[in-house]
Design a protein that fits this description.
This protein has eleven helices and 21 strands. The protein is of the alpha+beta class. It has three domains: 126 residues, Roll (Pnp Oxidase, Chain A), CATH 2.30.110; 151 residues, 2-Layer Sandwich (Beta-Lactamase), CATH 3.30.450; 121 residues, no CATH class. Strands 2-1-5-6-7-4-3 form a seven-stranded antiparallel beta sheet. The protein has a six-stranded antiparallel beta sheet with strand order 10-9-8-13-12-11, with helices on both faces. Helix 2 runs antiparallel to helix 5, helix 3 packs antiparallel against helix 4 and helix 3 packs parallel to helix 7.
Length: 465
């Protein structure tokens, strides 16, 4: 007997499902649906987004059949369903709504392409459909003996607890926030094969995220921003719920098709919100984003993606949720320490000698934006910090600073609590490494850092750009 739990891969949305209904007078209707959500061992949920023929049929006749595909084995299963109820709140509705709203945001359909209800169905029977594929042509290679990628192994074939222990150890040994983030991204790549990942932290406004660390991309994207509620990552930040999406192309195609239909019916002169490009891999097929929260406070988002549409499974979401909690706790722990580490201070290396080019920095007061040699460098709190350090170094000759003095400087506008100063210093260091490697801010033990300048500075402050 087939159990609903055994069909987990069929509910990932990699291969679109179909739902068949019938009106009271016997007229059938078949529709494609992008996602069937597993609820428990006896129930699944389908999304209701528009009042269409399927909805009308179910109101007349509560019986339906959904056909789902296993994206790995290509086995097909027909689920006999009986409509139970519609939900407009609760865990099932929230998870489904988050997924739909994220896709809607990317296609400029927020507020239009939305979840009306999560329709709950009892699964009355499960039928395995056989002999639906033609036999392989002679000479077709047998792929059944190919090795399984580590990230695709089911939980029973890998030692997750040892992986979690190893990752936890690396995070606990991290002396600072930058090392912690590096340990997390390295562990995800080495232990899971998740080569494309990034960490975004909440900025001082509490309404945006900025990328502070990444792995696997041609360009790091450090400093790039995502507004709460926009796209997959922004939706996770706003709702503080994990989001896992496979077969991204088909989801976006569906959203764009709805957008095109709505646009064609819109009144003359009406405009739609622009489609938001996916950050990261341009051809990513699957995404997993998890909120980083500690004591009910969001500190950031851990985002992973892959070109394989079936990379992230249900167990990955649960397992990496534990990792995300540890990452959030580590960020919280390392973002409030201003204590000097004497041993680290004693090991300070001398600054290497180098030729001294000339660098021109301009600070625009109206938006706290810093340009170097005519190119944008950084803005907001990190921009104000950099300008303070450069001016202090030039006017007073200082090259040693503490996190504490930055926190006590009212001109920097840091929040009184949980200012995430360390994350802003990491961002600043990485942007300088990209745009102006002649200026560096190396750490000098816990809560201290240096300003190393191997160029001649020209500083110019202007009211506006």
């Amino acid at each position: 007997m087939i159990a609903l739990e055994d069909l987990a891969r069929c509910f990932e949305g990699v291969v679109p499902a179909t739902v068949s209904t019938c009106s009271a007078d016997g007229v059938p209707n078949v529709s494609s649906i992008s996602h069937v959500q597993f609820v428990d061992g006896r129930h699944v949920a389908l999304s209701r987004q528009f009042f269409n023929k399927t909805t009308r049929n179910l109101l007349e006749n509560p019986r339906a059949m959904v056909t789902v595909w296993d994206p790995v084995s290509f086995d097909v299963y027909a689920l006999g369903l009986r409509f139970v109820r519609s939900e407009t709140s609760g865990a099932t509705y929230d998870r489904m709504a988050t997924r739909i709203e994220a896709i809607a945001s990317h296609t400029g359909m927020s507020g239009i392409f939305r979840l009306l209800s999560a329709d709950i169905f009892e699964v009355t029977d499960i039928l395995a459909i056989t002999q639906h594929l033609a036999p392989a042509e002679p000479g077709t290679p047998d792929l059944s003996d190919l090795p399984v990628e580590p990230s695709k192994m089911p939980p029973g074939q890998r030692d997750e607890l040892w992986v979690l222990h190893r990752l936890s150890t690396r995070m606990n040994q991290a002396p600072d926030l930058e090392s912690l983030l590096a340990a997390v991204l390295d562990g995800l790549a080495e232990d899971f094969g998740f080569a494309h990942a990034k960490v975004l932290l909440v900025d001082e406004t509490g309404r945006r995220l900025f990328t502070v660390a990444s792995r696997g991309y041609e360009e790091s994207g450090v400093g790039s921003e995502v507004v709460f509620g926009e796209g997959l990552i922004g939706t996770v930040a706003r709702d503080r719920r994990p989001l896992r999406v496979g077969q991204m192309d088909s989801n976006l195609r569906y959203g764009r098709a709805v957008r095109a239909e709505v646009t064609s019916r819109a009144a003359a002169g009406a405009t739609m919100a622009p489609e938001i490009p996916l950050p990261g891999l341009p051809d990513a097929q699957s995404h997993l984003a998890l909120p980083l929260s500690v004591r009910g406070r969001l500190v950031g988002v851990l985002a992973l993606e892959s070109r394989n549409p079936a990379t992230f499974e249900t167990w990955h979401e649960a397992f990496l949720g534990v990792v995300a909690d540890q990452v959030a706790a580590g960020i919280d722990r390392l973002s409030v320490s201003d204590v000097e580490d004497p041993a680290s201070a004693a090991r300070r290396p001398p600054a290497p000698a180098a030729p001294r080019p000339r660098r021109s920095f301009i600070f625009y007061q109206n938006d706290d934006c810093v340009f170097v040699d005519g190119e944008y460098l950084i803005r907001n709190v990190p921009g104000r910090i950099l300008w303070k350090l450069l001016k202090t170094h030039q006017e007073q000759g200082r090259s040693e600073f503490t996190n504490r003095e930055l926190r006590l400087d009212p001109g920097l506008g840091l929040p009184p609590l949980r200012d995430n100063l360390e994350s802003r210093l990491i961002l600043l260091r990485q942007r300088l490494a990209q745009k102006c490697p002649d200026v560096r801010l190396p750490p000098r033990g816990r809560g201290r850092f240096a300003v190393e300048i191997e160029c001649d500075l020209q500083l110019d402050e202007r009211a506006s750009g």
